[in-house]
């Protein structure tokens, strides 16, 4: 019984400590999810396709992403 209460209190303290750091990430994730849902609703035939390097001719592909030449 005492162990259960101790674990519950420590869990609550850990959650309250982590919440300020996790909140911006969760907010960004929610905004991105809503934006993807809106795009899918507006353009139902369009899906996120993985493209190979050959499909993106005229583009520079590096570790920072893809951009026009």
Describe this protein's structure.
The chain has 69 residues and is mainly alpha-helical. The chain has one domain (1-61). The protein contains 1 helix and 2 strands, in the order αββ. Strands 1-2 form a two-stranded antiparallel ribbon. Strand 1 (59-62) and strand 2 (65-68) form a beta hairpin. The longest helix has 41 residues, at 2-42. The radius of gyration is 22 Å and the shape is elongated. The protein starts with a helix and ends with a strand. The mean pLDDT is 79.
Sequence-ordered SSE layout with sheet pairings:
Layout: H1 2-42, E1 59-62, E2 65-68
Antiparallel strand pairs: 1-2
Key descriptive features of the protein:
single chain; 69 residues; mainly alpha; two-stranded antiparallel sheet; 2 strands; 59% helix
Summarize the model shown.
By secondary structure, the protein is mostly helical. The protein is 59% helix and 12% strand.
Our count of domains comes out at 1
Radius of gyration: 22 Å
Summarize the main sheet: 2 strands, antiparallel
Which structural class fits the helix and strand makeup? mainly alpha
Please state the average pLDDT score.
79
Widest β-sheet, arrangement of strands: 1-2
Q: How many β-strands, per DSSP?
A: 2
Distance between the termini: 66 Å
Shape: elongated
Q: How many H/I helices?
A: 1
Instruction: Determine the strand fraction and express it as a percent band.
Output: 5-15%
């Amino acid at each position: 019984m005492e162990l259960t209460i101790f674990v519950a209190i420590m869990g609550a303290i850990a959650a309250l400590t982590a919440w300020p750091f996790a909140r911006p990430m969760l907010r960004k994730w929610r905004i991105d999810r809503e934006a993807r849902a809106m795009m899918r609703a507006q353009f139902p035939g369009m899906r996120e396709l993985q493209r190979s390097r050959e499909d993106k001719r005229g583009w520079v592909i590096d570790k920072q992403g893809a951009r026009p030449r």
